[in-house]
Design brief:
heterodimer, A: mainly alpha, Rna Polymerase Sigma Factor, Chain: A, Arc Repressor Mutant, subunit A, 9 helices, elongated, B: 723 residues, alpha/beta, three-stranded antiparallel β-sheet
C-alpha cells in the first residue's frame, strides 16, 4: 500500500468507525495498537499496566470518536488518550505505593568485565529505564524509541515543548549516570 | 552561556530540535570544549542504547482479541452481533486471527493477567514491656489447662513458654470456644486457605470449566474439518492425533463426541484411574492413577479428568516427532481461527494462570507466536503438512521456550520442548523442589521443602516474597533468580512462575522467616519457636480440600476472647493476599467466593491488629475483638473440611535415574501451648491448633488415605514437639 492508499484507507476506516462500525474501529486498533501500547509503556514502565491502559484508551477513543476533529492524525489523538490513561494509572499507583520499600538486591556498582554480554547490557539498560522518574522516562522513550518530535511528545503528554526538552535532558543525565560503565566514561560539568 | 546551561541544548541538538541559529551556537561551543564534546558523545551513546534495548511492545492478536471482546461487552450487543463483526475482519481460513505485526518484535505484549498491586506495609508494633518468659507456671492464670500434659511436655513448656503436643483432632473448630483458646498462625493459614480453595473451586465451576468445554467443543469441530480435508498423509495423521486428544478431553468432560476406538479406550482407562498402561491415543505409557480424584477439583470429576488428560497429553515440539509437532500447530490454528474463540481461550488461559500458575510447557499462545514467526500472518493448515514447515516451527518454539519458560524443568523430566493446551501447572515450590536433586544438594540425599524455605531464608528470596504486590517485585525477582541459579541451578523462569495464589502464600510465609523483634515475647526468640514456625509454614504449603459452601461468618458477642499468637505481619500479609486474590478473581468468578475472600481479608486484618495490641499490651480495639470473636465461626465456615492434605512433588533421583514422589502431608492437628501476657499484664496459658508436616518418599503418589496411614515422621529439627 502506498502512503496515499494508507491515508485513504485510514480515512475510510475512520468514516466507518464514526458510524459505529466496530469492525472498522478494530482495524484501526490493530494498526495503531503498537504505538498506543508503547506510549503507555513509556509513561508506566510496566507491560501489564501499559496493556490495561491501552485497552482503556482504545475504548475511550471509540466512545469519543465523534470529538476527533481530524485536524491532527488519528494516532496522535489516540496516543494522547493513551498517555492520559497511563498518567491516571500512574497517579493511582503512586497513591497505592505509599507503603513498603522492598529490599534492593544486588550491587549495581559492581564493575563489569571487559566484554559485557549483550544480554547483560540489555538488562542494565532496561533497569536504568525502569528507574527513571516516570515523566523523564516517558519523554525519553517517546523520543528515542518511538522517534517522536518534541512537538509530538508535548502533545502526547500535554506539556509545553520546553518541558519536553528539559525532561529529555534530565532523563539522559540520569541514564548517563546509570549507564556510565556502558558509555565508558563520565565527566563532571564545569 | 556556561557548559551547564548549554547541556540541555546539546541534548536537543542531538534530536535535531534546535533552530539553525541555536544549532550553530551550540556546535561552536562544543568544538572548543572537551567536556561538552564528551557529553555530546554520551548523549548519543545513551540514546542509542535506549533505542536498541528498550522493550518494544507489540499489541498482538491476543490483545486485539481482548479489546474486541471488551468493545463487544461495552456495546452490550448480543453475541451473534459480535460474531458478525469478527467475521467482517476475517479474510480466509487461518488468516483471520493473525494480525500483521509491523516492525521488529522484541517483546510480545503480555498475555497473562496479574494480581493487582495494592499498598502494603508490615505493621510495626512499638516495643512494649513484655514480662520475661516465665520459668515454671507459677503466676500463670488458668495453669490448670496444662493438666493434660505429661511431665516431659510440662517441663518443655515451663522452660521455654511453648510446647507442641501431638494430637488427633481433625476439626479446627473444637479448639475455639473455651477459656484458653489460642488463635495460632496455623489456624489462620487454614482459614485463609479454605477461603482461597473455595474461591478457586467457584472460579473453576463458573468460568474455567464452561470455557474449557466450549473451547473443546469448538476445537473438535474445527479439527474434524481439517482431518476431513487433509491434503496429504502427514496432515491426516497429525489432524487425527490432534482431534483424538481433544476428543478424549471432551468425552471425559461429559460431551459425547462420537465413535473412535482409541478414544474410547483412553476414556475408560482415565475413568478407572488404576495403574500404568499404554494410551491408545498417545502411543505411550501413562500413569492412570493421576486421574484419581483429589484436591480442590475433586468435586468436579468430569472437569478434573479432562484437565488431567490435557496435562498428560503433552506434544513434543521437535522434528523427530513430526506428527506431534503438527498436531500442536493444528490445535493452535483451530483455536486462533476466530478471534472470539481466541479471546475466550486467552481468558481461560489467564484464569488458569492466575489460579494455578503458568504451565511448564509451551501453551497455545506460545505456539501461535512460533507459527507467526515461522510463516508470518498467513497460515493455512496445508502449510503445516509440508515437510519444510517442521524446522522453523520447532526452532521458534525452542527459542520461545528458552527465553520465557522453564526449559530446564522440561529437561529434567524428559528432554525437549512440549506443548499443552492446559494443565500440568506446578507451584513455584514444587518446581524448585523438583529441580533440586543429586549434585545440586551435595550433603542431602534428596531435596525436601526445607530447601525451598532455606532458599527463602536468603535475603534475595525474602525480598521477592516481601515485594510481591509492590513495584519492586521484578527487580527483586532478578536478584533471586541469579542466586537460585547459582546455588541450585534453578533457571530464572522457575523463579518467575507461580500463580497469584502461590505468590500470596509465599508473601505471607516470608514474614515468618526473619527473627522476631526485641519487643516480642521471649519465647519467640527461642530456637524452638523458629522451628515451630518453619514447620507450620511447611505444613501450610500443603494443598487443602475446601469444605462445603455453607454458613455465614458470625460473631459470638459473649464468648470468651481467644488469645492470639502474636505475629502481626503474618496475619497482615495473609489479609493482603486475600484482598488481592479477591480483586484478581473478580474478573474470573465474582460471586460468593470472592465476597468470602474479602471477608476473610477483613478478619485477618483484625487478627493482625489484635496481635499488635497483644505485643504492645494495649487494650484490644473494637476491630480486634470482632476478629477474635468471629474466629471460631470462621474455622467452621471458612477453614477446609479437614486439615488432612497431601501434596505430591515429583522427584527424580540422579543416582540411578529412578523416579520417586515426595509426598508432603499434614494432619491430624497437634496442640500448641504458649504462655502469653494479656492486656492487664497477667500471664495466661493458651492452647490452639498446630499443623505438623511429614514427608514421605514413595514410588507412586500417595492418596490422602495412604498418606493418613503412612507412619508419622517428624523432622528431627522440630525441637518444640514433645511426645
Amino acid at each position: 500500500m502506498s502512503v496515499e492508499d494508507e491515508a485513504a484507507e485510514e480515512e475510510r476506516l475512520l468514516g466507518l468507525a464514526r458510524e459505529g462500525d466496530r469492525a472498522a474501529f478494530s482495524r484501526l486498533a490493530a494498526r495503531h495498537g503498537d504505538a498506543l501500547l508503547r506510549a503507555a509503556f513509556a509513561v508506566l514502565g510496566n507491560r501489564d499496566d501499559a496493556l490495561d491502559a491501552t485497552q482503556e484508551a482504545l475504548l475511550r477513543a471509540y466512545r469519543h470518536l465523534a470529538t476527533f476533529d481530524g485536524r491532527s492524525s488519528f494516532v496522535g489523538w489516540a496516543r494522547r488518550i493513551a498517555t492520559n490513561c497511563a498518567l491516571n494509572r500512574l497517579e493511582q499507583r503512586k497513591r497505592d505505593a505509599a507503603g513498603v520499600l522492598p529490599e534492593v538486591v544486588g550491587d549495581p556498582g559492581e564493575p563489569l568485565t571487559e566484554g559485557v554480554a549483550r544480554e547483560e547490557e540489555r538488562a542494565i539498560v532496561r533497569r536504568a529505564i525502569d528507574e527513571l522518574p516516570p515523566a523523564q522516562r516517558a519523554a525519553v522513550l517517546l523520543r528515542d524509541v518511538e522517534g517522536l518530535s518534541y512537538d509530538e511528545i508535548a502533545r502526547a503528554l500535554s506539556v509545553p515543548k520546553g518541558t519536553v526538552m528539559s525532561r529529555i535532558y534530565y532523563g539522559r543525565e540520569n541514564l548517563k549516570e546509570k549507564l556510565g560503565r556502558l558509555l565508558g566514561r563520565s565527566h563532571d560539568v564545569r | 552561556m556556561t557548559c551547564a546551561e548549554l547541556r540541555p541544548l546539546i541534548s536537543a541538538l542531538h534530536d535535531g530540535e534546535l533552530s539553525p541559529e541555536e544549532a550553530a551556537l551550540v556546535r561552536a561551543h562544543v568544538e572548543g570544549c572537551d567536556a561538552c564534546r564528551a557529553f555530546q558523545d554520551e548523549v548519543a551513546g545513551a540514546s542509542e542504547l535506549v533505542a536498541r534495548h528498550a522493550p518494544r511492545l507489540v499489541f498482538d492478536e491476543v490483545s486485539l482479541a481482548r479489546f474486541e471482546r471488551s468493545l463487544a461487552r461495552e456495546q452490550r450487543r448480543d453475541w451473534r452481533g459480535f460474531l458478525a463483526a469478527a467475521s467482517f475482519v476475517a479474510i480466509a481460513w487461518g488468516l483471520s486471527a493473525l494480525v500483521v505485526v509491523s516492525g521488529p518484535m522484541v517483546v510480545s505484549a503480555f498475555t497473562r493477567r496479574v494480581l493487582p498491586v495494592l499498598p502494603y506495609a508490615d505493621p510495626r508494633p512499638i516495643a512494649g514491656n513484655l514480662p520475661p518468659c516465665p520459668h515454671g507456671l507459677e503466676g500463670v492464670a488458668n495453669a490448670s489447662a496444662a493438666s493434660a500434659l505429661t511431665a516431659k511436655q510440662r517441663e518443655a513448656l515451663e522452660s521455654s513458654g511453648l510446647v507442641q503436643v501431638p494430637g488427633n483432632a481433625t476439626d479446627l473448630a473444637t479448639f475455639f470456644g473455651g477459656d484458653s483458646a489460642l488463635v495460632t498462625a496455623d489456624a489462620a493459614l487454614l482459614v485463609y486457605q479454605g477461603a482461597v480453595a473455595r474461591a478457586v473451586r467457584e472460579a473453576e465451576r463458573e468460568r474455567i470449566a464452561p470455557a474449557l468445554r466450549e473451547t473443546l467443543d469448538h476445537l473438535l469441530r474445527a479439527l474434524r474439518a481439517v482431518e476431513r480435508e487433509a491434503s496429504n498423509a502427514e496432515l491426516e495423521r497429525a489432524s487425527r492425533l490432534a482431534r483424538r486428544i481433544v476428543q478424549v478431553a471432551a468425552e471425559l468432560d461429559g460431551v459425547p463426541a462420537g465413535e473412535d476406538e482409541a478414544v474410547a479406550q483412553d476414556v475408560a482407562a482415565a475413568r478407572r484411574a488404576e495403574g500404568r498402561g499404554e494410551s491408545a491415543v498417545l502411543g505411550r505409557e501413562l500413569s492412570w492413577t493421576r486421574f484419581e480424584l483429589r484436591g480442590t477439583l475433586a468435586s468436579m470429576p468430569e472437569h478434573f479428568r479432562a484437565v488431567v488428560w490435557l496435562g498428560e497429553a503433552a506434544l513434543r515440539l521437535d522434528r523427530e516427532h513430526p506428527d506431534e509437532l503438527r498436531a500442536a500447530a493444528l490445535i493452535t490454528l483451530c483455536l486462533a481461527r476466530e478471534r472470539t474463540d481466541l479471546a475466550r481461550f486467552a481468558d481461560l488461559d489467564d484464569a488458569v494462570t492466575l489460579i494455578h500458575g503458568p504451565q511448564d510447557d509451551l501453551g497455545a499462545l506460545d505456539v501461535l507466536s512460533a507459527l507467526r514467526s515461522s510463516f508470518g500472518s498467513a497460515i493455512r493448515p496445508e502449510v503445516v503438512g509440508r515437510a519444510e514447515a517442521l524446522e522453523p516451527i520447532a526452532r521458534h518454539a525452542a527459542a520461545i521456550a528458552a527465553s520465557s519458560r522453564t526449559g530446564a524443568i522440561a529437561t529434567l523430566d524428559e528432554p525437549g520442548v512440549r506443548f499443552r493446551l492446559v494443565g500440568n501447572t506446578r507451584s513455584l515450590e514444587s518446581l524448585v523442589v523438583s529441580s533440586l536433586s543429586g549434585d545440586a544438594l551435595p550433603r542431602r540425599v534428596r531435596p525436601t521443602s526445607l530447601d525451598l524455605l532455606a532458599a527463602m531464608g536468603s535475603s534475595a528470596a525474602r525480598a521477592v516474597a516481601s515485594s510481591d504486590g509492590t513495584e519492586g517485585y521484578s527487580r527483586a525477582l532478578d536478584g533471586l533468580s541469579s542466586i537460585l541459579g547459582e546455588v541450585t541451578q534453578v533457571p530464572r523462569a522457575v523463579a518467575r512462575s507461580g500463580s497469584g495464589i502461590e505468590r500470596s502464600r509465599l508473601f505471607a510465609l516470608a514474614s515468618l522467616l526473619p527473627r522476631p523483634d526485641a519487643a516480642a515475647p521471649s519465647f519467640m526468640a527461642t530456637q524452638a519457636y523458629s522451628d515451630r514456625l518453619l514447620l507450620a509454614a511447611l505444613a501450610g504449603l500443603n494443598a487443602t480440600e475446601p469444605g462445603p459452601d455453607e454458613g455465614e461468618l458470625t460473631t459470638d458477642p459473649r464468648g470468651p476472647l481467644p488469645a492470639i499468637e502474636p505475629l502481626p505481619a503474618f496475619y497482615a500479609r495473609l489479609a493482603h493476599g486475600a484482598r488481592r486474590l479477591a480483586l484478581g478473581l473478580e474478573s474470573v468468578s465474582g460471586g460468593r467466593a470472592t465476597a468470602r475472600l474479602r471477608r476473610t481479608s477483613e478478619l485477618l486484618s483484625g487478627l493482625s491488629l489484635a496481635a499488635q495490641e497483644t505485643l504492645t499490651r494495649r487494650e484490644l480495639s473494637e476491630e480486634s475483638r470482632w476478629a477474635l470473636r468471629s474466629f471460631g465461626s470462621a474455622t467452621r465456615v471458612l477453614a477446609p473440611a479437614s486439615p488432612w492434605s497431601v501434596e505430591t512433588v515429583h522427584v527424580q533421583l540422579r543416582r540411578d535415574g529412578a523416579r520417586e514422589w515426595l509426598d508432603r502431608s499434614s494432619g491430624p492437628l497437634d496442640r500448641l501451648y504458649v504462655v502469653l501476657p494479656d492486656a492487664q499484664g497477667e500471664l495466661r496459658l493458651a492452647c490452639g491448633p498446630a499443623l505438623a508436616a511429614r514427608e514421605t518418599v514413595a514410588t507412586h503418589p500417595l492418596t490422602p488415605a495412604e498418606a493418613a496411614r503412612a507412619p508419622r515422621v517428624d523432622p528431627e529439627w522440630a525441637s518444640h514437639i514433645v511426645r
